[in-house]
Design brief:
The complex is a heterodimer of chains A (270) and B (181). Chain A has 270 residues and is an all-alpha fold. Chain A contains eight helices and no strands. Helices cover 91% and strands 0% of the residues of chain B. The N terminus of chain B is likely disordered. The chains are: A mainly alpha (270), B mainly alpha (181).
């Protein structure tokens, strides 16, 4: 069996993952592979996924970039005082993130607004596009979200030390607590500081992945139930609506946490 | 070579079998590379084109709104001023009308007074003249009556057969007239 599978894989290249998955699941009655949608595959060739290979991840990130450009550049092309629909959405997202940045980080934080806007637009677009049937969710991948979160983490940490020098460490020294507790709190603060990128990235990837997997599982039920398929389809409809919400909320949460971390770097004292 | 290919291909396959393609490190470099490209692309487009443009549009709109409000304020002030000017003009016109009407009334009164005074004077003069004429007529009449009475008395005395003395009769008549008068 395993040899057969291996042979098949060697022949069929890209279908390897599917084949193996089928082999693994094939025995059970329900043929549901909720995680297969997350497989990164080359678009044109049947080879392994190299660094520069054009993959489905590449494609959907590119689509996200194009949609951001369409919305924010083409949408605002009119520059009209009374905005068109696209322009008002573009202005709405601009004001939304601008105000968030200003409210949380203060005036000094506005220097970093373009990067925060980049993060938000990329995540919200990738999340939303991933809800199209047959599409791919880049933000469901821990590799992607971890890079996003680590860039924020490293950027914020470096910025904190550059701006505040050693006094940035005051972030961990809770001066409002009793002196005896401060070392303990400092350890806890330090740990929580380093857990930030982990929670920051896993929150986003986990939410998107879970939603998509659940949709796929219900879709599998619908395929197996025949006449009663309307029940899982109703469920899919409801979950889809929830996922639309989650797509926006997770982008919002990621962005607002970025702002909060940035604020800590700019004003490290409690 | 063969085993390498196999591993490269089976690697992800085994990860899939274990559940999560996300945990397959062979796709990480690819995803990270394209993610960075995507972020740089978005960042570039945003900082070069989109954000300055949207920001300028928002600022322009804010400016337009502020200007419009200021213009509206100005117009309102002008309207108030115009209303005040109108009220003032109205009040002036009314005062002027009152004044003219008072003047006219006074003048008319004066003319009327003058006219009635003149009329009264004329009437008085006429009356005086009439009285004078009446007095004259009466005097004449009295004189005539006296003469007639004297003549009549003389005639009566003569008719009665007495030699009448002209002056005696006249005296008697005069006396008699004075008694009756």
């Amino acid at each position: 069996m395993a040899e057969q599978v291996a042979a098949k894989i060697a022949e069929s290249g890209t279908d390897a993952a599917h084949a193996t998955a089928e082999a693994a699941h094939g025995a059970s009655g329900l043929n549901i592979h909720p995680m297969d949608q997350f497989i990164v595959q080359p678009l044109f060739s049947d080879g392994p996924v190299g660094m520069f290979t054009l993959t489905n991840a590449t494609l959907w990130m590119a689509v996200a970039v194009i949609c951001v450009v369409l919305l924010l550049v083409i949408g605002s092309r009119g520059r009209s005082v009374i905005p068109s629909r696209a322009q008002s959405v573009a202005e709405l997202s601009y004001s939304f993130i601008y105000k968030m940045t200003e409210d949380i980080t203060g005036k000094e934080g506005l220097k970093y607004f373009p990067y925060i806007m980049t993060l938000f637009m990329f995540i919200v677009m990738a999340n939303s596009l991933a809800l199209l049937p047959m599409s791919f969710a880049p933000t469901a991948h821990i590799a992607v979200t971890a890079v996003l979160a680590l860039m924020v983490f490293l950027g914020v940490t470096i910025l904190g030390f550059v701006r505040n020098g050693a006094s940035f460490l005051g972030l961990f020294w809770v001066s409002s607590a009793p002196l005896a507790l401060r070392p303990i709190l400092a350890v806890i603060e330090l740990i929580s500081y380093f857990v930030r990128p982990v929670s920051h990235s896993i929150r986003l990837a986990g939410n998107i992945m879970a939603g998509h997997a659940v949709l796929k599982v219900f879709a599998g039920f619908a395929g197996a139930l025949g006449l009663f398929a309307f029940l899982p389809i109703l469920a899919i409809t409801a979950i889809y609506a929830l996922e639309v919400l989650v797509a926006f909320i997770q982008a919002y949460v990621f962005t607002i946490l970025t702002c909060v971390y940035l604020k800590d770097a700019l004003h490290p004292h409690h | 070579m063969e085993t390498e290919t196999r591993e490269a291909v089976i690697g992800p396959g085994e990860e899939v079998a274990s559940g999560m393609p996300q945990l397959d490190p062979s796709s990480y470099p690819n995803q990270i590379f394209w993610l960075l490209i995507a972020l740089v692309a978005i960042y570039f487009v945003l900082t070069r084109i989109a954000l300055p443009r949207i920001s300028s549009v928002l600022a322009e709109r804010q400016g337009t709104i502020t200007n419009d409000i200021a213009a509206a304020e100005e117009l309102k002030q002008k309207a108030t001023e115009a209303e005040r000017a109108y009220d003032r003009a109205l009040a002036e016109a009314r005062a002027e009308a009152n004044r003219i009407s008072e003047e006219n009334k006074a003048e008319m009164q004066a003319q009327l007074d003058r006219a009635s005074e003149k009329a009264e004077a004329e009437i008085g003069a006429q009356q005086a003249e009439s009285e004078k004429r009446i007095a004259e007529i009466r005097d004449n009449a009295m004189a005539s009556v006296e003469e007639v009475a004297k003549d009549t008395a003389l005639a009566v005395v003569a008719a009665m057969g007495f030699e009448a003395d002209q002056s005696q009769v006249d005296d008697a008549v005069d006396r008699r007239l004075k008694e009756t008068a």
